[in-house]
């Protein structure tokens, strides 16, 4: 059994293949993460073409700088999501700042509020997508179908105590979306960049 803090084998091998310049590795990485990257970029930017641009930027960056990912720092998926988030937030800030400079509506404070809001929403989406299916199922029942823990337990076929545990854990994880996007939050995926 591998040590708990050892990086996943696929992540390590992918980083090595990218560092060797294997075009097939980039294709495999794109197939695995393109929908995640595009979805997060779109969530932050709210624009299809801008999300397409960020998706290209992320994979170009990964191709040109494979050494910037360190498998010992965490999963490749999280690193790619963090890179996407930073680039998308920077694009949102840049376009908002340019619009303000041209005399567009709003204030710098409103722009920063919009950036923080988009950051939290993207982080929450990522957290939900990354949850194990049983945890996500309990949250979806509670949120989308307005089930309480007893109804969720019956629908899923688990004990009420297990349903409460899953809902509590899911909500705790989601609460980190807001914490990570707060000013002064530690670096990594989720900060307002």
From TrEMBL:
<protein>
    <submittedName>
        <fullName>Sigma-70 family RNA polymerase sigma factor</fullName>
    </submittedName>
</protein>
<keyword id="KW-0731">Sigma factor</keyword>
<dbReference type="InterPro" id="IPR013324">
    <property type="entry name" value="RNA_pol_sigma_r3/r4-like"/>
</dbReference>
<keyword id="KW-0804">Transcription</keyword>
<dbReference type="InterPro" id="IPR007627">
    <property type="entry name" value="RNA_pol_sigma70_r2"/>
</dbReference>
<dbReference type="Pfam" id="PF04542">
    <property type="entry name" value="Sigma70_r2"/>
</dbReference>
<comment type="similarity">
    <text>Belongs to the sigma-70 factor family. ECF subfamily.</text>
</comment>
<keyword id="KW-0805">Transcription regulation</keyword>
<dbReference type="InterPro" id="IPR014284">
    <property type="entry name" value="RNA_pol_sigma-70_dom"/>
</dbReference>
<dbReference type="InterPro" id="IPR039425">
    <property type="entry name" value="RNA_pol_sigma-70-like"/>
</dbReference>
<dbReference type="GO" id="GO:0006352">
    <property type="term" value="P:DNA-templated transcription initiation"/>
</dbReference>
<dbReference type="GO" id="GO:0016987">
    <property type="term" value="F:sigma factor activity"/>
</dbReference>
<dbReference type="InterPro" id="IPR013325">
    <property type="entry name" value="RNA_pol_sigma_r2"/>
</dbReference>
<dbReference type="InterPro" id="IPR036388">
    <property type="entry name" value="WH-like_DNA-bd_sf"/>
</dbReference>
<feature type="domain" description="RNA polymerase sigma-70 region 2">
    <location>
        <begin position="29"/>
        <end position="95"/>
    </location>
</feature>
């Amino acid at each position: 059994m591998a040590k708990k803090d050892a990086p996943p084998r696929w992540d390590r091998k992918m980083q090595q293949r990218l560092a060797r310049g294997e075009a097939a590795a980039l294709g495999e990485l794109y197939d695995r993460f393109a929908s995640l990257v595009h979805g997060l970029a779109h969530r932050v930017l709210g624009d299809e073409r801008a999300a397409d641009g960020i998706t290209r930027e992320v994979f170009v960056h990964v191709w040109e700088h494979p050494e910037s990912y360190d498998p010992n720092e965490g999963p490749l998926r999280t690193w790619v999501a963090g890179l996407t988030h930073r680039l998308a937030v920077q694009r949102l800030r840049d376009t908002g700042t340019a619009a303000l400079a041209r005399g567009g509506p709003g204030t710098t404070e409103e722009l920063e509020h919009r950036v923080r809001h988009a950051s939290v929403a993207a982080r929450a989406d990522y957290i939900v997508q990354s949850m194990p299916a049983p945890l996500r199922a309990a949250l979806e029942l509670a949120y989308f179908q307005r089930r309480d823990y007893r109804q969720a337990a019956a629908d899923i076929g688990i004990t009420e105590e297990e349903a409460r545990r899953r809902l509590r854990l899911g909500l705790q994880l989601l609460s980190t979306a807001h914490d990570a996007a707060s000013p002064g939050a530690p670096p990594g995926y989720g900060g307002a960049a």
